[in-house]
Amino acid sequence: MIGEIVPKEVEPERILIFSGHHDSAYEFNLIKWGKGKYMIPLPVLALIPLFMILINSIWTLIYSLIFNSYRPNVIISLIINVPFFPFLVLFYFFTSKHAVLGAMDNLSAVSVCLGISKYLSENKNSQFYPKHTKVLFISFGSEEAALRGSKKFVSRHYDRIKNATLINFESIAKKDLIKVIKKEQTAKLSDQLCKEIIKITDQIKIKCEIRALFFGTGGTDATSFAKAGIKATTIIGQPIGPVSYYHTQDDTIDVIEKESLRYALEIALHYIKFIDNQ
Known about the structure:
Layout: E1 2-5, E2 14-21, E3 26-28, H1 29-34, H2 42-67, H3 74-81, H4 85-92, E4 95-99, H5 103-122, E5 133-140, H6 148-161, E6 165-172, E7 179-183, H7 191-203, E8 209-212, H8 222-226, E9 231-237, H9 258-276
Parallel strand pairs: 2-5, 2-6, 6-9, 7-8
Antiparallel strand pairs: 1-5, 3-4, 7-9
Helix pairs in contact: 2-4, 5-9, 7-9
């Protein structure tokens, strides 16, 4: 879904994009069972079969060198593999067949984008209404399915958006945990954009810090833009790591603090003013 706000009198000189995603994930059983106290990242579980193959290959090689045979003892092979069986079971049951409600992840971001567009459309004479900048509001689908929605958007519209700036919102829930992301699992985001946002949050007295997402936490739609060389970052408002409501049925509106949505809205409006004056 795409909406836009355009300057009233002149052709836009630049494009600024605010985005989120409206799809939700299948429930993560491990987080649900552990009440958010622990989580083995999916990439780690996915590596277990590779470790099993590696260890079995080493065991076969050692056995063949010692006994001049390529048929290792079955009992010893089973003993070697037993420690990995629980991880294979966890991998198989990693997600359930039930999609979560996704209030925080990521309808919170969609609501922020709607709030920005609503404010601008109703306040065309405000200091935040863009005079030289086209502002796009995009809600992507299939973010939880390896960022397919944003990847397709970037590939289809690259010529149009290659010089744009993207601020993506992800899981805006806690007012004291607002962070701007400089690096994700497979992409480096814009340092310059992160610093610009921090400068704004300092001016408007909103607590915010620059952070990197660690291995196993997945990625956001900003990755699709950054990999294409487009200036991009993500603003998040939740702990970096497992919590009981992440990708579970507990992800309801009750976990969202209203102030966190207002903070995201204020950051966006002040960034529009900042970039429009350049």
